[in-house]
């Protein structure tokens, strides 16, 4: 029955999407489809009713059915804002479309997370569309977390999620005995209507908001993050063997005699990648990237696989990790622990001195890592030439030096083609056993973190390009070109600092943006310009189409290197096994993945965003808590953002607070949106992004994750003046294909996992696949790939060139350009 209804729905949607379609009555639709018999008519009516309930079609007052988008209506998800307004994100969003702005007066009872129908009504400012909610199709919030406020005969719960703007009324009998200040989980029993509040019942008391650990627990429940694994999953995990068998080695390439190492943080336990580098006789480098073969143990459709697919990613909170797969696998048989046999999927690449991958091969293997190295030790060997460590790891030291050389070559290749290289400061909040923050320390991305980044990224690119040219369904990591209006605003912003970008925003090459970053390196405005540039870009996401990666300036990119903590990587491994190892590229196999991959990609992208929000929330919460006992203390900081309600100031340890406009008492300050500045009407004083000031901490609200500052004084350095002649950034003359995708703030194995918020960084691979059991390609086989690579010719930068990350590595010599 359901299959027949769904079939009718699909046919109706296809019919109604035709250009010539005009709204028809049910009788006219019945005639158009040639429906016969009472049963057929009933199924047809059920399909229409279902479509109407879901908002897929609209019934007019004359009982005619049509599509919402053809009636000036939008179906989508409502994203609320703490200030009362909201946006509707359309489900059928076309490239370039904006979200629909909904004023507070036009919400009509809709709340954050609801699926709604909205009518497009007007243009509010610029090109932004406004609308009003005409129907709530489905409530998005069934449960939420908040703080209980007690009254005599009832109580209220104030939601932690400030996007949910309605408090929840709780009868005394439905409070579970909660008292003032308890953090609780509430089930919504009725939603706000007319002037009545939402109502609910307490279903779980997490503890008092001041109890140790309750704050993080509240965030976990707020974002519906899964804690314990289901019993069935744990039983399945416990049945996985702890050692590999002879049967496991069948058809695997034996690399156990190779010098292969892992390089990770000292406290890392899930070691999912290992590397080796060899200098070849022809002067090229052979790079082996060996990734834990998680897909061998996590079989498709198994309880572990189903749970991992739902979680989609590990989540790295301040005081804990919520893993994607059970620790018995992630820290055990799947972890590439030292001096034990482990199953891997390998990508071996031959790379020349220009950073080009001239040959590559993808295959299943078995390895035994020689050493478990730490970032700190590799850095000490390469940068400090620590004699004790050099002696301890003497057999490995020559390879580490070659790794440094190769990493610099790969990095220079990326920079030549125009990859955008953000280098934001990152901080880590240290907490004690009770979860109380003890310090906020800066993370150092040294040469060792950076070389692992380069190796992981070139492997990801090589794998992505390989499957692109195989022309089979695949999982890609994409980053679409920035929106034209946002880039235009950014270009206008940088003119305040004396930089002018030549050319149109809709034809921007990432190289032009990278040139700006090179020019501002070491300047007071470096962090500010980098931040505003990042905010001008889209988010990176997963997609079944190869839409390219703007930030990396590459056409092909995927995530292959972290299957322990990212489900898309596990899927990529599964596809490698399907297409290459098992040789299954038949129509049925491709049809299966063509149908399943878009849904997996969308869900994984959503779960990644959920994880990022939870990680950011706990980080900000603990930073605020760290500042509670710092009230009255003074610090130097930099204005990081200017709004109409005040100045945000960032301290050297990345903690950010607000100087509210009401604390600027020496004058009446006007917000200059064009120049991102506050200007005093009487004194002419100007506070602008990038200004260095001294602040005093005056208030901290941990629950709101808010820190308030007041200005004590300006730093003694002179105010930055505009350049007499702006530095002009020329667009590279080489064209690049316009593609789709979204911007990235998660790093590729640089520093501790899950903590970065940067772009992917990457190299470039080439080749077509061939053969069963392994895949390889040579430079000649991939000529068609390299011919279409964007940005092969270098655009000359006008600014000071960055010193190479690896130029202090022994044995690395920068090539001199030959005179023509």
Give a structural overview.
With 820 residues, the protein is of the alpha+beta class. Helix content is 28%, strand content 25%. The protein has 18 helices and 36 strands. The strands form 11 sheets. Strands 13, 15, 16, 19, 20 and 36 form a 6-stranded mixed sheet that branches. A 5-stranded antiparallel sheet has the order 5-4-3-6-7, with no helix packed on it. Helix 1 (2-16) packs across helix 3 (38-53), helix 4 runs antiparallel to helix 17 (587-626) and helix 11 (397-417) packs across helix 12. This is Ribonuclease R. Residues 773-790 have a biased composition (Low complexity). Belongs to the RNR ribonuclease family. RNase R subfamily. InterPro entries: CSD, CSD2, NA-bd_OB-fold, RNase_B_OB_dom, RNase_II/R, RNase_II/R_CS, RNase_II/RNase_R, RNase_R.
What's the short story on this structure?
α1 (2-16) crosses α3 (38-53), α4 packs antiparallel against α17 and α11 (397-417) packs across α12.
Structural key phrases:
single chain; 820 residues; alpha+beta; Arc Repressor Mutant, subunit A; OB fold (Dihydrolipoamide Acetyltransferase, E2P); six-stranded mixed β-sheet; five-stranded antiparallel β-sheet; EC 3.1.13.1
